[in-house]
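## retry 2 of 3
previous attempt timed out at serialization; input unchanged, resubmitting
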Amino acid sequence: MSSRSDHGIRMSGQAQRKPRPRALTSLPDGLEHYELRRELRPDPDLPTLWHHAVVVDENFIPVRAESSPPAYDPIRTEDLLGLAGPIELEIGCGKGRFLSEYAQLHPDRPLLGLEWTRPIAWYAAEKISRRPSLQHAKVIWADAPYFLRDRMPSQSVSAFHIYFPDPWPKEKAKKRRLLQAPLLAQMRRLAVEGCLFYWGTDYAEYDQYARRLLGQTEGFALVNTNPGPTEGLMTSFERKYVDEGRPIYRSIWSVEPLVSA
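## retry succeeded, writing output
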């Protein structure tokens, strides 16, 4: 069996999607789950980039995991980042402007950026690789909810950063938003004492949704309702939006660690 997930999944033809019959919305007989196997490995050409991607077979068909969820296999942050945790985590690091500039300000903090679009993840990692002093920062091409659930050790994160994620504004698409209750549950599992969550968006309705969700979720408390850019650093999107005159919505929240009984 091959593991060539970095090439993507090849689809045969461009068949038009048909409406799914109501009877087919449940799992087919004999199929226990839709969970796919994911592999964590370094990029062969760029040492600042890692892959946590779906494994495919020799025909580029995704390989189903043995269980749902798969066996828990957490990383050792000191092996990946060269420094012992806790780490700071940017979910959706984009092209890495904030991550790289923040890493320059904090050479003593292990930093990890997650990005689910492969070319963008490569761009961010390449930006970091051009600065030899940033050995404590890495980028992982990953779908964040799966990576956090399957690979991140409990009580290992001192700060979360999420800036300008896709707002998925259409009503039917809102379920695809990054900020959802399962992600918040993982954030509490990963948080150490004193953990903070830095949030930013240019989309007013998404900010209202985020504040409502966070305010109703146990373990999250609003610390700063209208902060400026984190340590004065703006993402590429924020620079663009500010130049266009768009309003920016930011807030900072405390994250209470989830302590197992």
